[in-house]
Structure formats: C-alpha cells, structure tokens
C-alpha cells in the first residue's frame, strides 16, 4: 500500500522526470488499490481510496506551492488525469473536476484572502471542491441561469465603487449576497465541502452583464444537497442537485470581479474541458490495450485474430486516434497562458478526444466479440463511462458551432510546418495544405453569405468540424516531427489519411438548409402533431 | 428618414443589443463600446450584427461589420443601409 506523503512537495515544475515519477506512482496506486468494477457496482468511491489519493498528492497537483499544492501546469494536470483514467474513470473524474472546475476559479481569480483560507485544505484533499452552473432551464445556454445572488444596498455600492474581488474589508464582511436557486448535475456535489457557483448578480459590477462566481460552503445555512443521480456511466462519481434557499454569502466570497463571472467562466471551462479530454486519452488507451490483449490471444479459423488484416486495420485506427488525441491534449497545455488559443484548442481537444474515445472504446468492444458485451470484461464499463464525455463540459454540437463561429470572427493563424525533403516534410505538406483548404472554405462561405453566415448553423457546424480536424492533424504532425520515430510517423500519416476523407464531407457544400428544415418539420409534425 | 421613424429604429436596435448582451435596455448608452462596456467579445459582437442584418434584412460585409466597435456604430451602419435600400 502506498503511504508516502505528497511526492511533489518542493517542486513547481513539470519536468519530464517529475511527470514520469507521477505517472509511475499513479500506475502503482491504480494496480494495487483501485478496484474499478467495485466502484462501478457500488456506485461510490470508498472514502479510504479518496484519502489515499489525497496522501499521494493528487488533489493538490494544480494548486500553487505556497498553498500546499504541487503547482503543476495544465500539462502536468492532464498527464495525471490521463494516467488515473487508465485505471478508473470515476476517480479520474472526481480528481479532475477538483483540479479543474473545482479549484481553478479560486486559483486563477480568487482574492488572496480566499486563496489563503480555502486552498490549503483543498490541496491536501481534506476538502473536495465542486462546481455548479447547470440548472433545469440552463444547460448549454448559460444566459438562462436563474439562480440569483441579491446584494444589499450597501454591498451594491461597494461592488460598484471598487469593482474588484479583493475588497475584503470590514464593510465587505458585514454585507452579504442572498443566494436563491437550484443547480443540477453537480459533479462532486455529494463529496464537496466547497462549491463555486455561477449566479445572476445584476446589481453588482455596474449592472453590466450581471453574472458572478461565488464560493459557497456545504455548511452554509440554506444549502441543501439532493440525492445522488443514478447514471449510465461514471457511477462512482458523485452527481447531485444542490438547492440554495436564501443562503447568506459574504461579499468577500465573490470570486474574481463582481459581474464578470461569464468572462472568468471562459477560462475555467477551458481548463475543465482540457482535463476532461485528458481523461478520454487514458480511457481510450486502456480500451486499446485490452483489445490488443484479446486479439493476440483469441484464435479463430486456426489463426490468432491479431493476424487478420481486417483486425490489424482496426487496431491501427485505434492506435492512430489515441496518438492524435494525446497530441492534441498536449498541444492545449502549451498554450495555457494564451487565453485566445486556450479557448480554441480546448474546444477542439474536448470534441476530438470525447468522440475518439467513444470510437476507440466501441471498436475495442467489437473486437472482443460477444465477451465485450459481458460485464465481467472491462468493455461495458468503458463504453458507459465514455458516453457522457460528448455531453458534459459543453455538448459537442454546441462546441462545434462555437468553434466555427470563433473561426469566422478571427481565423486561426499559425506558421507553416517546414516542408523539407524528409518523410516528416511530407506530413508537414499535408497539414499545411489542409490549413489552406479550411481557410478557402471559410472565405467561400463569407463571400457567399456575408454576415448572414452567422445565422447558418449547419454551415458553421461543418466549419467547426473542419477546425477540430485541422487542429488534431496539426497536433499529430507536430508530435510525429518531435518524436522523430518511424512509428510516430506512421501513426500520424494513418490519422491524416482518415481525417482527409472525413474532411471532404464538410468541405463540400452542406445539404441545403431549407431541405433539412423541411424534413425536420415533417418529422416533428408526425410525432407531435 | 423621419425623426419618429429614426427613434423607433434606434429603440429596435437597442432591444436587440440588450437581448444579446444581457445588459438592461435602460443601461445601454449610444457611446458604449461593444467589448469593453457591454462585455461582448468579437464572436458576440458579430452575432449581434448578424441578428440585426436578419432583423432588418440588411446586406453587410463581414469586414465592415468587424470594424464596428460601438453602439453608435451599429446604429449608423443600420441606418445607412436602410436609407440606401
């Protein structure tokens, strides 16, 4: 049993040997201590296992050293989450949520007083963090948030005058916000001692935009935790509704600038999306390894399945997807300090990793034959756990429209890869050509529709698909060039070939919008009259 | 354009801005900057102009729209297009 104290004390770098050590420790922890099937069966992670994860230092990875954490970058956090997700997705989700959405608001935007008060316990894992934004009427449309935090008159004046989150003087403590509303699908909600919520605060921040991030404690009077949801997957992670009935929250617990919650949220969600995408890479690797073990052992028609070309092609596709997912998630980590690129890349990574995870797990299950349908194998749980990733942290279709819209507003630019005479040069040439085709498609759409393009969601959705594929190709090529091995080259080339085929569907004109609307209208009329 | 027509148009435009920026209609001033004052990033600003183009059946070039940064600018663009129609 692992009992060593936090292994990263004293370092705030993501040096390769530190990350290697981290991964090895998580692997040992997973092998010796995690029973994923028991977690899935019992719909809970044992408290003792959470304590051991805390002792290992997992809950403090992203928290600054000065507050007792390891001070890891987004890249380091992703490495840890990917490693953990290889062993159990529920635990990876619990830790990932804590490191991303749970504590990132405090780390990035919290006042010094808030950070000093809450981060040490959160880093030690003696307290777990949650994040609550979804409501019954506000899913992807966060502007529909109904939870309100109403300030007293004095508090309003103070927030308007200071417009900062560091106002922690006596006046601030004497004044409070009254929070009312409901949140649903709160990951970690049943375990958390603290939760960051988004609330409508029209009276704060000069009446502009009017949403703020607030820190609530589980013990605050008026906070009620609902029952655990019964879920398709991630059964060991906690998902509950939270109810706020006139909860009095001191003004000092506003995180960041009052009234600017939505703009803070953009950064926080980018972190959360990326950590989630990292989990997808770990789970997909587990599925690939399980499939390879199966096909190399299983004999049919006098041959091992692994010897059949049809099986080899499927294993190659799964491996190429894993390679490219990992490359794209790593690429997000490299731009973590650039808000614009972080937003773009995190969207691409989330969409691509969640869809690839689903594809890889589904293919792995298929290769297991009938046994893949039996709960005794890891495949059903992997499939169930993967499904939510295309929905939470931003539904993929919404994110694709967002990716397309961002590209229209501000086309992405990057220096071309160097096209030398080496095999890597050929990969570079293909990636550069793909960039140009996406750009040409964008220009053609703008020329054809002008500003009305922004109302053509099918076109924007298709453009978003191209952006995601382009970013994944870039990442795969960059990884192949950096690694320099024949194996990396083959994986990137295999992925690029498949991506080009998929891109053709989106580069060709969409089905006419009116045709789509007519068909949908007929179906709706048939079903609901 | 008559004064009362112009006033009605201004109000209609302000309503669309209020809806998309989540800022109360009464709080929006003509001199407000879309990004800095109303919190609309480049994507939200373009969605606003796109909504106006659809609402008033305006033909607007993407580049021209992207150059508009204030509420005043939005109203001038809309009026110019409507007068030319």
Molecular structure report:
The complex is a heterodimer of chains A (529) and B (85). Chain A is globular, with a radius of gyration of 24 Å. In chain A, a hairpin with a 2-residue loop joins strand 9 and strand 10. In chain A, helix 1 runs parallel beside helix 4, helix 11 packs across helix 17 and helix 15 packs parallel to helix 17. Chain A folds into four domains: 109 residues, Butyryl-Coa Dehydrogenase, subunit A, domain 1; 129 residues, Butyryl-CoA Dehydrogenase, subunit A, domain 2 (Beta Barrel); 134 residues, Butyryl-CoA Dehydrogenase, subunit A, domain 3 (Up-down Bundle), CATH 1.20.140.10; 135 residues. In chain A, strands 1-4-5-8 form a four-stranded mixed sheet. In chain A, strands 2-3-7-6 form a four-stranded antiparallel sheet. In chain A, strands 9-10 form a two-stranded antiparallel sheet. Chain A is α+β, with helices and mostly antiparallel strands. Helix content of chain A is 57%, strand content 10%. By secondary structure, chain B is an all-alpha fold. The mean pLDDT of chain B is 80. In chain B, 28% of the residues are buried. In chain B, helix 1 crosses helix 2 and helix 1 packs across helix 4. Chain B has one domain: ACP-like (Non-ribosomal Peptide Synthetase Peptidyl Carrier Protein, Chain A), CATH 1.10.1200.10. Chain B is built from four helices and no strands. The longest helix of chain B is centred in the first third of the chain and has 19 residues. Chain B is globular. At the A-B interface, helix 14 of A face helix 2 and helix 3 of B.
């Amino acid at each position: 049993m692992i009992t060593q104290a936090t292994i990263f004390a004293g370092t705030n770098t993501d040096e390769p040997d530190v990350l290697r050590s981290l991964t090895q420790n998580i692997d040992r922890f997973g092998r010796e201590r995690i029973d994923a099937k028991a977690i899935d069966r019992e719909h809970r992670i044992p408290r003792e296992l959470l304590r051991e994860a805390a002792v290992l230092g997992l809950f403090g990875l992203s928290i600054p050293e000065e507050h007792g954490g390891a001070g890891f970058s987004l890249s380091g956090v992703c490495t840890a989450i990917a490693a953990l997700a290889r062993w159990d997705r529920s635990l990876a989700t619990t830790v990932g949520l804590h490191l991303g959405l749970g504590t990132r608001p405090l780390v990035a935007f919290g006042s010094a007083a808030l950070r000093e008060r809450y981060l040490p316990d959160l880093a030690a894992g003696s307290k777990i963090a949650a994040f609550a934004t979804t409501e019954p009427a506000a899913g992807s449309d966060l502007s529909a948030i109904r939870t309100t935090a109403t300030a007293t008159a004095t508090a309003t004046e103070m927030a308007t005058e200071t417009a900062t989150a560091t106002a922690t003087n006596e006046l601030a403590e004497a004044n409070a916000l009254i929070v009312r509303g409901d949140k649903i699908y709160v990951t970690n909600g049943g375990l958390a001692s603290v939760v960051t919520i988004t609330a409508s605060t029209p009276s704060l921040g000069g009446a502009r935009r009017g949403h703020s991030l607030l820190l609530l404690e589980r013990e605050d009077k008026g906070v009620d935790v609902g029952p655990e949801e019964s879920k398709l997957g991630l059964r060991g992670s906690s998902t509950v509704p939270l109810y706020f009935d006139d909860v009095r929250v001191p003004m000092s617990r506003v995180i960041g600038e009052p009234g600017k919650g939505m703009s803070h949220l953009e950064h926080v969600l980018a972190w959360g999306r990326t950590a989630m995408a990292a989990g997808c890479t770990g789970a997909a690797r587990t599925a690939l390894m399980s499939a390879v073990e199966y096909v190399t052992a299983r004999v049919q028609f006098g041959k091992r399945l692994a010897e059949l070309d049809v099986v080899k092609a499927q294993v190659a596709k799964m491996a190429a997807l894993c390679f490219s997912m990992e490359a794209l998630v790593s690429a997000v980590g490299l731009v973590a300090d650039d808000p614009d690129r972080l937003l773009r890349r995190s969207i691409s990574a989330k969409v691509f990793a969640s869809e690839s995870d689903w594809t890889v797990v589904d293919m792995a299950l298929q290769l297991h034959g009938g046994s893949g349908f039996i709960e005794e194998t890891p495949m059903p749980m992997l499939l169930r756990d993967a499904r939510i990733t295309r929905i939470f942290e931003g539904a993929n279709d919404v994110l694709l429209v967002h990716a397309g819209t961002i590209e229209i507003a501000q086309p992405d630019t990057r220096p071309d890869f160097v096209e030398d005479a080496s095999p890597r040069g050929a990969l570079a040439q293909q990636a550069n050509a793909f960039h140009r085709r996406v750009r040409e498609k964008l220009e053609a759409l703008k020329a054809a529709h002008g500003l009305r393009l922004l109302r053509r969601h099918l076109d924007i959705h298709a453009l978003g698909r191209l952006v995601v594929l382009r970013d994944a190709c870039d990442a795969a090529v960059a990884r192949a060039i950096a690694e320099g091995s024949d194996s990396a080259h083959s994986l990137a080339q295999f992925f690029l070939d498949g991506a080009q085929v998929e891109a053709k569907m989106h580069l060709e004109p969409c089905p006419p919008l009116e045709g789509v609307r007519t068909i949908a209208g007929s179906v709706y009329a048939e079903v609901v009259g | 354009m008559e004064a009362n027509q112009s006033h009605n148009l201004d109000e209609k435009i302000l309503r669309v801005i209020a809806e998309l920026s989540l800022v109360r209609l009464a709080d929006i001033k003509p001199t407000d900057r879309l990004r800095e004052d109303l919190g609309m990033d480049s994507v939200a600003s373009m969605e606003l102009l796109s909504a106006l183009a659809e609402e008033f059946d305006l033909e607007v070039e993407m580049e021209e729209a992207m150059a508009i940064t204030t509420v005043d600018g939005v109203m001038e663009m809309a009026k110019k297009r409507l007068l030319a129609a």
